[in-house]
Amino acid sequence: MNSAVLEGLPLTCETSEEWAPLALANLDQVLRDHAWCEYKAASAGLGLMARFPEHEFLHRPMVALVQEEMLHFRQVTDLLKERGVSLGPPPVDPYVKKLRGLLCAKGSGIGGLGDHLIVNAFVEARSCERFRVLARALESGPEADPDLSNFYQRLADAEGRHWESFRDLAMQVCDPAVVTRRISEAADIEADLLRSLPVEARMH
Ligand SMILES: [Fe+2]
Ligand SMILES: [Fe+2]
């Protein structure tokens, strides 16, 4: 697969073509969901430090991640404010919940912290892909919004870096060859999960 939206990512399937038009038609709803995704990404970084206190090497990269995700949260909530849209309560995220269940199931992965790092790596990678798709959809056509398109391109670049950071951290706790093999298995599991979920006006 050579699609530009998947470039540099571990993913094996692209987002359905139905998603971008649906997201553009319900942009406020997608932005609300997106704001909470940034919040949850920060919260996941904090959670890893508390859950694995023996792994002090996580502290610096997680603090940097949490700060960046909270900046994204602020940027998206600022956008909502400009649009006169309230944030509302956090929606449930079946994609992340199910992905965590599948990849962290006892005995199926590389164990403990490594599995959690790989879940986060895939959530970042899928977010990167969706942001690229959205940035492209906002580039031209009747719904074009060049500023928002650039914003999503910048965020896609950030999430692409985050996927690499989580992969590299996993390689610090497990044999890199084992991590590489697990990432390729996880890519198929993630693709099957994505295909099983309905296409909705949300980030995942
Ligand atoms: Fe982010
Ligand atoms: Fe991220």
Summary of the model, kept short:
This protein has 204 residues and is an all-alpha fold. The chain contains 7 helices and no strands.
Structural overview:
Helices cover 69% and strands 0% of the residues. The protein has seven helices and no strands. By secondary structure, the chain is mostly helical. The site of one fe (ii) ion has 6 residues, from helix 2, helix 3 and helix 6.
Q: Topology of this structure?
A:
Elements: H1 19-25, H2 27-51, H3 59-82, H4 94-103, H5 112-137, H6 146-173, H7 176-196
Helix pairs in contact: 2-3, 4-5, 4-7, 5-6, 6-7
One fe (ii) ion (FE2) binds next to helix 2, helix 3 and helix 6.
Count of individual helical segments: 7
Write down the overall mean pLDDT: 95
- The topology string of helices and strands comes to HHHHHHH
Determine Rg (CA atoms, Å). 17 Å
Which spans of ≥5 residues are poorly predicted at pLDDT below 50?
Answer: none
CATH homologous superfamily (4th level) name: Ferritin, core subunit, four-helix bundle
Q: Characterize the largest beta sheet: strand count, sense, and whether it forms a barrel.
A: none
**CATH class placement:** Mainly Alpha
How many discrete domains? 1
- Beta-strand level of the residues, as a percent range? under 5%
What is the correct CATH architecture?
Up-down Bundle
Structural class: mainly alpha
According to DSSP, the number of beta strands is 0
Tell me the overall shape.
Answer: globular
Provide the list of bound ligands, each named once: fe (ii) ion
Helix content: 55-70%
In the CATH hierarchy, the third-tier topology is known as: Ferritin
The N- to C-terminal Cα distance equals 21 Å
